[in-house]
Amino acid sequence: MTTPPDPRGTPLPDDPMSSEEESDALVSAYLDGEVTAAERARVEADPVLLARLEQFRSVRSALADDIAAPAGAPDRLVTGALESYQTRTAEAATVTDLQTARGRRRPPIWVAGVAAAVAVLALIAVPLWMGDSGEDQFQDVGSALISSDAEGSPEPERGDADDAADFSEDASDPPAAAEEAAARSSEGLLVLVPLDGDGADANTHDAPADGAWADGEMYRAEGWPVELGRFPDRESAQRGVTAGVVRALAQPAGTDVGPISGASPLEAGSVHDCLRRPPTGAEHTGIAEPEAPVRFVGAFEQDGDRRLVVVMDLDDLARRAADMPADARHRVLEVHQVSCTLLGEQFL
Amino acid sequence: LLRCHHDRIYAVCRRLAGNEADALDACQEALIAIVRGLDRFDGRAAFSTWAYRVATNACLDELRRRKRRPDPGLPEVEESPREPGPSLDGQVADHLDIDAALRHLPEEFRAPVVLRDLGGLDYAQIAEVLDIAPGTVRSRISRGRAALAARLGNQAPAAERTTESP
To answer: Do A272 and B117 touch (CB under 8 A)?
Structure first.
């Protein structure tokens, strides 16, 4: 971005600020709570700066004055935005059987990609699954998969999420050639998990009568969620779920790999939002993002509670957008009742 | 989500646009942009930060489009210089003053000030929304506020504002 003109009409000096501008910058930062303790003390000890502070406070107050939207406008604006979106997507919104959709939608590169991914997964998973020596690594992957209890455990802030992703790098270490092949394999990404209160099939939805489903096709994926078992505690769930997920992903017949969509914008937003702040009153019902290939959905019970684990493929764009490790293959979510937790981006 | 954030988004649009009619149009464009862009929100930033980024860009785009179109019906409002006054509070009661003052403030300064004082975003968030460095945010907010204070007739004489600090 280029240097803008000075708001008072004179050229803006690049460097340094005048002493007056420096004082203003200090006072302004003080007003915003963006000062150090020393800077704070300096402002509070200087009556001239304090007087300037009051002027800036008045400006702030003036900005907030009389800016309420006219009566009725909020509803009109929100409705207008939603109608615009629904109009744009209404024609494409259908419900299609996954088996039917698979035959006509998946481009050849996707088939090749999945095959490559499965090959890599098999390379990684089979030795881990079959060999005793793999047990520890399984546990590591399990830690990344479900390292935190979803209950009362909101999505970590950025640093924590990065930690989760970093952890995944230790989980497995595929050969370079296989990794390169897999890097070409992933396509799309999305998040979204439906979980009915009674634990019904998470991937079969009836289209709402009001046509609120948005964005493209919604697939009925038979066989999901895969039942991964019942576990008495977190530790055993870690082992069992991880093993089940890895085993499922290693299946060559990939019966349920495909995009799942079908959430309304608000529902999609609520799930996106829950990645950081699990809401307490909202229910997540649907898997959004029309082209997101959900790689796997499993269900398990821990302490009598039913939970889902969802694995989505990542593509290069998603990795770059979210600043994920370049070798991340999947995004893994655990869903429990109305909260979902991003467990990390990793390879499995 | 839209209803939760609509008020502050409208407020930002209102001050960026400078009048209610343009603000409503800009806010509508912003909300549409948010809805259509939801699938690009990756959850890394707070939803509010992302929404402000989308809204700010949509609002500014809308205003730029309007600026390029001829507008024969609306005469330019010229701000007459004010005498320095002891109190700003009385003067800013008329919100036309702040609109006029904002209109004279270049966009590069207006947006950070509005995002800070109305959006409640911190410097890091504003930097992310506007794609500028946090240090630049600090200086632009400061200069923007100083310009607004001056426009609103509250600019103290420079001699009075010289601090004892170096």
So the answer is: no
